Amino acid sequence: MKIYSADKTPLNIIRIISALITIVFLIICRYFIPFYMIMISMMFIFSASGIIMIFFYFPAMFRNMEFCIGNNEIKKKNGVFFRREQTVNISSVQYITTVCCVFRRLEGFNFIILNIYGGIMILPFLSNNTFREITSEINSTVRGD
């Protein structure tokens, strides 16, 4: 059984995007909420939630994301506050969809979507090498090579 984890390269880009969204919300609060106390409380809420997401939630999310691929099954473990584990038999995989983001040249923005009987399993934030390795391994197992 091989164990893979999410690539941590996209973490900084996600942090920057979250910081920009937080700043936009702060500007919107400043200019569009006329009542001073409500404006200050909303700005505090957006600032606190942005700081918590950027410095605590996103790093914990990437640290806890793990993919295990064995001979007969694929396991995905993730979660920050509550750990979730999703297990799928490789024989129940119907087909595989690969998503390579616009940022493909940047490492870590590759996703594998496994379409399974009754649902899907998404393997997010894979490095280019891990992406190719997992895709070839699952394809060979699904085809029966």
Name the features.
alpha+beta; PH-domain like; 145 residues; three-stranded antiparallel sheet; four-stranded antiparallel sheet
Describe the overall structure.
This protein is elongated. Strand 2 and strand 3 form a beta hairpin. The model has no long low-confidence stretch (mean pLDDT 87). Helices cover 47% and strands 30% of the residues. With 145 residues, the chain is of the alpha+beta class. The strands form two sheets. A four-stranded antiparallel β-sheet has the order 1-2-3-4. Strands 5-6-7 form a three-stranded antiparallel β-sheet, covered by helices on one side. It has two domains: 52 residues; 78 residues, PH-domain like, CATH 2.30.29.30.
Named CATH topology of the largest domain: PH-domain like
On the 0 to 100 scale, the average pLDDT is 87
Tell me the name of the CATH homologous superfamily of the largest domain.
Answer: Pleckstrin-homology domain (PH domain)/Phosphotyrosine-binding domain (PTB)
Residues in helices, as a percent range: 40-55%
Q: What shape does the CA trace take?
A: elongated
Can you identify the CATH class of the largest domain? Mainly Beta
What is the total number of structural domains?
A: 2
Instruction: Examine the secondary-structure arrangement and name the CATH architecture of the largest domain.
Output: Roll
Largest sheet: 4 strands, antiparallel
State the end-to-end distance. 18 Å
Order of helices and strands: EHHEEEEEEH
Number of distinct beta strands: 7
**What is the count of helical runs?**
3
Category from helices, strands and their pairing: alpha+beta
Strand proportion, as a percent range, falls in: 25-35%
Rg estimate, integer Å: 19 Å
List the strand order in the largest sheet: 1-2-3-4
Low-confidence stretches: none
